[in-house]
Amino acid sequence: MPKLGTAAGTLEVLRKYDFHFQKKYGQNFLIDPNKLEAIVEAAGVGEEDCVLEIGPGIGTLTQYLAERAGSVIAVEIDQALIPILSDTLSEYPNVTVINEDILKVDIARLSREKNAGRPFKVVANLPYYITTPIIMKLFESHAPIDLITIMVQTEVAERMQEGPGSKEYGALSLAVQYYSRPEIVAHVPAGCFIPAPKVGSSVIRLTRYEEPPVTVKDEAFLFRLIRASFNQRRKTLVNGLGNAEGLAVTKAEAAEALRTLGIPENIRGEALSLEQFARLSDLLCQKEAEKKGSSDPQTKKNTRIERQEDE
Ligand code: SAM
Question: How far from each other are the two terminal CA atoms of the chain, in whole angstroms?
């Protein structure tokens, strides 16, 4: 089987298997060897690594990864691609393909079973329709993952890096920056894929922190607060939080907490830094706990954020 990663090699495989792209699975296959090399290089993949690849497609990036990594576990949802992958990856005994929806995979268990509990490096050309849920799953599962190198829509990559004051700054920026250091490492034109996506693409590397850059009493409360703060972007933070579902905080309490922190009461959520959200979270979660009759909220480790899909 020739190496994939060119238009000719990819088209040959597609024809051989009479493969039809499934739009619902966000299938855009890479056909540029330079960009494939750049992804593997940015991920710093070496023999000691076990790579978790999300969505191998016909196995293009998988081949590049398998040549450098100790092992690769590739999770692909589309059953039609499984026989193709066993053909295109037949010369790579260090690759395991799993036919599953990544959102349903227990990644911590996979790491125990396939990598003795050691951290994975995640490398993927992600399906754009579920970029955010995948990223949040990788973080929130608290599975051992130390580096995530992914192709995403450029706009989403930029959103992950944004800071306070920008229009694009939001819940995703804060979640990514709470867990990792984001860095855009390459831009990839639409012509590098078959079929060409309608949006620009970029590779972003997220280096997982051992400890988050801010400490909070209750991680779950912090993320409830962040979600509530960006749900009603046009309102001031005080008005947004006072109305927010799932947050037992009154307008007066929100205003008082901002005063305590020396933050103007008419501020909007998008102007607050991660550190300021953390301090606000500690004050307000204390209030919420007092209302519930407990004054010592324990640190919780589940940070669900609900988000819209990216496209
Ligand atoms: N890695 C290949 C490449 O770079 O050419 C294909 C990337 S393509 C953008 C995204 C891949 O993710 C497709 O193969 C698609 O079928 C797969 N996929 C979509 N949703 C998925 C999910 N929930 N779990 C696992 N794979 C998924």
Answer: 35
Query: Global pTM?
Result: 0.90
217-226 tens-digit pLDDT: 999 999 999 9
Question: Which helix or strand (DSSP H or E) is residue 123 part of?
Answer: strand 120-125
Is the C-beta atom of 56 inside 6 A of ligand 1?
yes
Contact yes or no for 251/211 (Cβ under 8 A): no
CB neighbour list of residue 279: distance below 8 Å, 6 or more residues apart:
261
- Tell me which of 25, 100, 107, 122 to substitute to probe ligand 1's pocket, judged by most ligand atoms within 8 Å of the beta carbon: 25
Buried b (16+ CB within 10 A) or exposed e, 55-76: bbbbbbbbbbbbebbebbbbbb
Q: Are 52 and 110 in contact (CB under 8 A)?
A: yes
Sign of the CA dihedral 120, 126, 131, 134?
negative
For 11-51, write each residue's pLDDT tens digit: 999 999 999 999 999 999 999 999 999 999 999 999 999 99
Q: How far is CA 212 from CA 216, 221, 257, 273, 278, in A?
A: 9, 15, 23, 14, 11
